[in-house]
Amino acid sequence: MYRYTKQFHTALVEWFEREKRDLPWRHTQDPYKIWVSEVMLQQTRVDTVIPYYENFLEKFPTMQDLAEAEEEFLLKQWEGLGYYSRVRNLQAGVREVVENYGGIVPNNRVDILKLKGVGPYTAGAILSIAYEVPEHAVDGNVMRVLSRVLMIDEDIALPKTKKVFEKAVMDLMDYDHPSQFNQGLMELGAMICTPTSPSCLLCPVRDYCTAFHEGEPEKLPIKTKKIKTKKLYYDVAVVVDESGKLLLEQRPETGLLASMWQFPMVEVQPEVIPEVALSRTYQFALRNKETLMPLKHVFSHLQWHIQSYVLGAERTEETTGQWFTLEEVKALPLPVPMQKLFTAYEKSIGQ
Fold it and tell me: Which structural domains are found in the chain, ordered by start?
């Protein structure tokens, strides 16, 4: 394969320039904007990211704007993207750039890796795309492409395997066109060299692909199966007082969905009546109950199985949480399952 490196470069880069998708972050070399896009694209589909990316840069057009943003407003802009630690780390990293690097994102791997939330992939993507520095940027797409091109049968689920692919990228690197090369590998994995049913006949580098010539590209990459996700069962209530205000509580500052707002929720317990458990836990007097909807929400490592209710309530001096009007709730950063319950509640009252 390495005998044909120059031909591989030419075929990949020319294909990328000709066939690349028109994405908003491909119209800039601003390292801040590329940083934002790369963070958003982690664990999230491109078509989902586009409107978030455009809104985010409208709200925070400069690193200074993001560095100074209030957390609740910041989380609201990220609402629905999930993995909220990403945006917290992004803000922390941007603050470091503003405070320690004069607002200029470092252009070398040593310094950029010191920034909060910036790992080897994000560092390589920013350096190669924004600064044209020949650095590896290895994500799942790149590992899939190169496992097939170079017939690498290492288990990509193991962290140590990333080093194998980082070396492979640097061995193959197009030092004249590092941005197009890295983006080309990513684009190839996203559009052509897909996990199942790869479009080998449309692939610009199939002549140099060992797995294609062996006739079994779908057998690669090797990846051990994930451990089964944990299932948790909750009763959740949209609690409404006599004035129509809703009861919510803020999650802890660390951990899953940190600092997001949620409706009262308790784990399901055998032979415990949901509305009784909720009213006791949150210390409100129960007036009436209606069933709202069942809901399942899948995180990367666990599942929430929710049965939800609308509970009429009277406040007490001991009631925990805070009361908000409908309009105030709309301004709060809510996790996706809570957004869905809020939407269902609004429909139920004709809003």
Answer: 2-219 (1.10.340.30), 230-348 (3.90.79.10)
